[in-house]
Amino acid sequence: MAAPTSPSPAADPQALNRHLAAQLRALRCARNWSLDRAASETGVSKAMLGQIERGESSPTVATLWKIASGLQCPLSAFLVAPPTQSDAALFRSADALREKPASDDMLVAPLFPYEPRFAFEWLELTLLPGYVRHSEAHAAGVTEHVLLISGSMEVLVDGDWLLLREGEAVRFAGDRAHGYRNLGATAAVCHNLIHYAGEVASLSPVLDRGRHESEGG
Predict the structure, then answer these.
(1) CA angle, corner 120, sides to 115 and 122, nearest 5?
(2) Which residue of 18, 109, 134, 181 could cross-link 98, Cys pair, CB 3.0 to 4.6 Å?
(3) Do residues 78 and 20 lie in contact, with contact meaning Cβ atoms separated by under 8 Å?
């Protein structure tokens, strides 16, 4: 029997803020970083990081991605707890998971959050018309795969914007600057599989601890 979809903190804004606060605090403390150091590494202000850790702020997807890149951890760590490890089939619904954190023109559904044994996260991204995102380089060895499901979009790879049409896909090194944009009049929906290598796997106990803190364990 298929395992049910794991509950998403994003279904409750307050639960999401608690989850974000616990994850950020756990990851920062694991690196023995002060808020000043975390601000320097992520490009997000000390004041904003402090607000997130206190559960007082709902950051945009763009801000979360900057934090994840600076901490060299998966984006999904901030959106949803990983599924309980099991070999059973796992059913996920993008409609149930899709969220639009804060005032952002990208919607994210963490279809399969990062798990160390698989070393990837699988996201559904919806880029609303006019959305442009220049992404920071991820940790060394990260590889991204983008498959366009509907609409049209462009991906910035090695300094050039590559047009994707429905059914087309691209794989590229995520440890370099890259980007996504939708210059069309309708939303673009894509699947983004991000494969991580190296250091992020060692953070799994930290991510688990952050999850337990956010759940009040």
Answers:
(1) 100
(2) 109
(3) yes
Q: How far apart are CA 78 and CA 74, in angstroms?
A: 8
Residue 145 β-bridge partners: 171, 193
Q: Mean pLDDT over all residues of the chain? A: 85
Closest of 170, 5, 151, 8 to residue 76, by C-alpha: 8
CA atoms within 13 A on the CB side of 204: 17
Q: pLDDT digits over 133-167, tens only?
A: 998 888 889 999 999 999 999 999 999 999 999 99
Rounded to whole angstroms, the Cα distance separating 204 from 92 reads: 22
Of 107, 110, 21, 26, nearest to 57 by C-alpha is 21
The Cα 138–Cα 175 span in angstroms is 4
Cα–chain center distance at 23: 13
Q: Residue 1: what pLDDT? A: 43
CA distance 78 to 76: 5
What is the rounded CA–CA span in Å between residue 39 and residue 183? 31
Instruction: Say what the pLDDT of residue 130 is.
Output: 95
**Mean pLDDT calculated for residue range 114-127:** 93
Overall pTM > 0.70: yes
